Amino acid sequence: MTPQTRVRRPYSIEFSGGRREAEELAQPIAEAVRATLASADDVLLGEPVARFEAEIAGICGRRFAVCVGSGTDALFFALRALDLGPDDEVLVPDLSFIATATAVLRSGAQPVFVDIDETGGVDLEHAEARVTPRTRALVYAQMAGGMGDPRRIEAFAAAHRLQLIEDGAQSFGARFDGFPCGAMGAISAMSFDPMKVVSAVTTAGALLTNDPALAGRARRLRYHGREDGQYVELGYNSQLSSLSAAVLSVKLARHAAWTERRRRVAQVYREILQPLGVGLPQYGERVEHVWHKFSIQVAGRDAIAGRMAKKGIPTKVHYPRPFHREPLFKGSGNDEDFPRASRRARETLSLPLHAHLSDAEVDFIAKSVVECLG
């Protein structure tokens, strides 16, 4: 047998850039880790956690931030803090990461799916048609690094007497007319897992609120229901490690610069792909996008992903099925009930986008999409 001929590829492209990010920050991260380990009694919910909470509360324009073990827990604790549970219905987008819906199930409430608009956010007109006397809350997911109009969303929630929970996991740092992601509604939930624009070593999340009672409830829930040395309610173990928080603070210092670079990458993609007629991310001039993802909508998505892979370019599908088609939610609707979510699930392809792509790599990726579309 003759050995297979290896294809020479011009670049070694990462989808999320984690390795290059670690190389850039190797020294400051090592120093932060050493300083944290020197305080052996401060390994969970220590001073680095309090510092990171203060930093993100300031960025998001909130009085309080409460760090927890994951963005999923942040969303679940938000629902629990608002006393949502059995017999309650909660409106959620039909297309998002699965935790947006399963956090509602964990709380005991029933998720009610709503179609999305052209930006990927909740279609408020469809949401209005889904409101019933049992509907008590809306989870509005900010998608891919963008934002919906917070004043319009808050007005909708107020008109229907709904608690508003912002799922800001994908859009930390984004703004709409200067209004920051993380400041909308009663509580916002954030994620800092390894794929986010500010990423922890493992998983991490945070709740943000202006209400001291809600913040206090979240702090109890994250550590076994404890308050003032007593266990006053059923809680959980969702503590953020001091090491993770210290690393997050190092990365947070680079967040603004990295965001500007991602914006430049996204602009190059748009300029090269605009003439092709593929679906490009939709957002208005009022949105300061942070570009957690750059996703196109194109027929024949899977074949194009295969051609890109042969060129050495990784792509991802966010998300291959709307919630109503997941086995967990069988019987909750059909594609005709959620036309935008269903089409986007069939056609979306996410391209590599991070702050550590070189100009040559960005150009190569965008032009490869042109070639792969044929």
Structural key phrases:
single chain, 374 residues, alpha/beta, Aspartate Aminotransferase, domain 2, Aspartate Aminotransferase, domain 1, 2 domains, three-stranded antiparallel sheet, 13 helices, 39% helix
Describe the protein's architecture and organization.
With 374 residues, this protein is an alpha/beta fold. The chain folds into two domains: 22-252, Type I PLP-dependent aspartate aminotransferase-like (Major domain) (Aspartate Aminotransferase, domain 2, 3-Layer(aba) Sandwich), CATH 3.40.640; 254-373, Alpha-Beta Complex (Aspartate Aminotransferase, domain 1), CATH 3.90.1150. It is built from 13 helices and 14 strands. It has helices spanning 18-24, 26-37, 47-60, 71-81, 99-107, 124-130, 150-159, 212-222, 242-252, 255-273, 301-310, 339-347, 359-373, and strands at residues 64-68, 89-93, 110-114, 135-141, 163-167, 175-176, 179-180, 187-191, 205-209, 226-227, 230-231, 287-288, 294-297, 348-351. A seven-stranded mixed beta sheet has the order 1-9-8-5-4-2-3, with helices on both faces. Helix 4 crosses helix 8 (212-222) and helix 10 (255-273) packs parallel to helix 13. The longest helix is centred in the last third of the chain and has 19 residues, at 255-273. The two termini are 34 Å apart. The relative contact order is 0.17. The mean pLDDT is 94.
